[in-house]
Amino acid sequence: MKIKDLVYIALFTSMMIVLTCVITIPIGIYGYINLSDLLIMLLSSVYGFGPLVIIGGIGCALSDLFLGYSSYALFTFFIKSIESIIVIFFVKRFRPRFRFIAYLIGGLLMLVGYALSDAILGASFALMVPSFIANLPQALICVSAAALINIPFERFVGSKINETK
Fold first, then answer.
1. Cα torsion for 114, 26, 24, 14, to the nearest 10°?
2. 3-state SS track over the chain
3. Whether the model pTM is above 0.90
4. CA–CA separation, 27 vs 131, rounded Å?
5. What crossing angle do the helices spanning 128-161 and 100-122 adopt, rounded to 10°?
C-alpha cells in the first residue's frame, strides 16, 4: 500500500468521524441519526473491501466512543464493516444508474443490525421494531442522497484517488 493510499484512508476516516459526530440528531435510547452510511455508500464505488472497512467500521466506532455511545461501538464496528462489504459487493454488480439497489440493501442491513444490537443491549427483542423505525430516517436519507450524487462523486473522487496510480 502506498503512502498516498494511507493518506486518503486517513482523510476519509476523519471525514467519517466528522460526518457522524457533527451532523447528529439524537433519537432517544436508540442512538442518533447521522450521515455515516452516505459516505460508506459513496465510497463503495471507489474503494475495495479493506479500506472501506477501515473507513466505515473504525471511523463510525470511534464516533460512537467520542459521542458517549460506547455501548454501541463494537456493534457499530461490525454493522458498518459488514455494510461496507455488502454494499461494495452489490455496487460492483450494478450499473451506476441502478446502484440505489445496493444502497437499499446496505441501508436495510444497517437497520437490522441496529435493531438486533438494541435488542441485545436492552435484553428484549421487543425493542427491535421501535429501533428499526427510529433508524429508518437515517437509512432513507442516506440511500436517497447516495443515489442522487453517486455518479458525480465517483467521477470526481475516483479520478483524484486514481490520479497518480
1. -50
2. CCHHHHHHHHHHHHHHHHHHHHCCEECHHHCEECCHHHHHHHHCCCCCHHHHHHHHHHHHHHHHHHHCCHHHHHHHHHHHHHHHHHHHHHHCCCCHHHCHHHHHHHHHHHHHHHHHHHHHHHCCHHHHHHHHHHHHHHHHHHHHHHHHHHHHHHHHHHHHHCCCC
3. yes
4. 9
5. 140
Q: Structural domains in the chain?
A: 3-161 (1.10.1760.20)
Please answer whether residues 141 and 39 qualify as being in contact, where contact means their C-beta atoms are separated by less than 8 angstroms: no
CA atoms of 100 and 87, how far apart (whole Å): 10
Say which residue the cell 452516505 belongs to.
38
pLDDT tens by residue, 49-72? 999 999 999 999 999 999 999 999
